[in-house]
Amino acid sequence: QKEVEQDPGPLSVPEGAIVSLNCTYSNSAFQYFMWYRQYSRKGPELLMYTYSSGNKEDGRFTAQVDKSSKYISLFIRDSQPSDSATYLCAMAGANSKLTFGKGITLSVRP
Amino acid sequence: KAGVTQTPRYLIKTRGQQVTLSCSPISGHRSVSWYQQTPGQGLQFLFEYFSETQRNKGNFPGRFSGRQFSNSRSEMNVSTLELGDSALYLCASSGTSGINTGELFFGEGSRLTVL
Given 3-state DSSP classes, what are the helix, strand and coil percentages for chain B, each rounded to the nearest 5? Predict the structure, then answer.
């Protein structure tokens, strides 16, 4: 079993839709949870970062962490064509190694 | 503030050759990590350097090596290239002095093609 599993894609939604992206993990040592966004031909950029269970909101983005179920989610409200990108979940424990999900490519249709 | 700079952006090599990739972190950042990104495996951790010391290493063969200089710039080297080494190599810097909390800033990557 991989340490981090991310829902496979690709995912295509109409503009204005609510998008839900999910990852599960198996390593109980993970303490820090992140979502990165990667546009084509660019490096990943940090979207959201949390270190506890619960929800964290930033504009149209909400990150949710459930440590008891080893499950994290990213919700995008009122999705825009500019949100079209690959989204990667990532997790870290008390060491310096980040473990990424494989990523899901999201396309928001105008 | 300048971001993470990686050079070269694109390169083509043949099997058996070696390659050196360079990364300049954000000014003031002392931690540099390297990742390999492929369509099949996604992003995989190669190694991390902090203050010129390798702090963590991923599960890659010894053909993959790296180093960090006193100005925090980092290089990674891949020797005896194989076709499977074709990938996007990403460098990321972090300002944290201790435990990496994952707040990494990535460069745009060096895309290596091995023929």
Answer: 5, 50, 45
Give the nearest chain A residue to B54 (CA atoms): A96
Q: Regarding beta strands A85-92 and A71-76, do their DSSP bridges make them parallel or antiparallel, or are they unpaired?
A: unpaired
**Residues B25/B49, Cβ–Cβ less than 8 Å:** no
User: Measured between alpha carbons, how far is B75 from A32 in angstroms, rounded to an integer?
Assistant: 27
Within 10 Å of residue B33's Cβ, how many Cβ atoms?
28
Residue-by-residue pLDDT tens, chain B, 115 positions:
679 999 999 999 999 999 999 999 999 888 899 999 998 889 999 999 988 999 889 999 999 999 999 999 999 999 999 999 999 999 999 876 545 565 788 999 999 999 9
CA distance B110 to B23: 9
| CB within 8 Å of A90: residues ≥ 6 apart | A4, A33, A34, A35, A36, A98, A99, A100, A101, B43, B102
User: Considering CB atoms only, which of A41, A45, A97 is closest to B45?
Assistant: A97
The amino acid sitting at A26 is S
Please name the member of A42, A49, A101 whose beta carbon is closest to the beta carbon of B102. Answer: A49
Provide the 3-class DSSP secondary structure of residue A104. strand
Q: Are B37 and B109 in contact (CB under 8 A)?
A: yes
- Gap from B105 CA to chain A (nearest CA, Å): 7
